[in-house]
Amino acid sequence: MLTQFLNISGESIQKAATVIQSGGLVVYPTDTVYGLGCQVTGLEKMVGLRIPDRRDTLDLISKAGGSLLGTSANISGNLSLRTAEDAFKVFEGKVDIVLNGGITSTRPESTVVKQTRSGVQVLRQGAIGSKDLRKALPLNVELQE
After folding, report:
1. Does position 91 have pLDDT exceeding 80, yes or no?
2. Domain ranges of the chain
3. Tens-digit pLDDT profile for residues 94-111
4. CB crowding 115-134: b at 16 or more within 10 Å, else e
5. Of 2, 22, 69, 131, which one has the greatest count of Cβ atoms within 10 A?
6. 48 near 81, Cβ under 8 Å?
7. Which residues, 6 or more positions from 43, have their beta carbon under 8 angstroms from its beta carbon?
8. 37-80, pLDDT tens digit by residue?
9. Pairwise CA distance, residues 35 & 48, whole Å
10. Residue 25: φ, ψ to 5°
């Protein structure tokens, strides 16, 4: 597979949206780190929701049909990717497009939690710590080992 490296523009966002609608994979910038996204069509038992604070990411989601299944664009256990060049090195030949939106924020990554019957389980520590979650949520907060 030939991976395209495209700078963010209206045209490249439309091209990436078309690839997503066709079942392809796209690396794109978020408000924190680069993400890996595809069309939301699977029948998984768990879905994560995120509303990014970045206009071009919201444009991509809108043009791809209003939803995007995504995860951080890094190999589990490795550092998060904050540049398109680093993402291209990791995913060249494995994804259709890498959208270059420059260096992403140096803010901490998003906190990832899973709702359980007894409360929430923190799957990834991030910007919102478990102490803050315990204060904000009247639920049991568990940390994943």
Report:
1. yes
2. 4-100, 112-143
3. 999 999 999 988 888 888
4. eeeebbebeeeeeeeeeebe
5. 69
6. no
7. none
8. 888 765 455 666 677 888 999 999 999 888 887 778 877 778 88
9. 13
10. -115, 140
Q: Compute CA distances 86 → 2, 13, 62, 92, whole Å.
A: 17, 20, 26, 10
**Identity at 105, one-letter amino acid code:** S
Q: Do residues 119 and 55 make contact, with C-beta atoms less than 8 angstroms apart?
A: no
Token code pair at residue 58: 């919201």
Task: Give the CATH number of domain 4-100; options: 1.10.132.100, 3.90.870.10, 3.40.50.2000, 3.60.40.10.
Answer: 3.90.870.10
Written as six digits, the tokens of 81 are 């990717």
Burial of residue 31 (number of CB atoms within 10 Å: 0-12, 13-18, 19+): middle
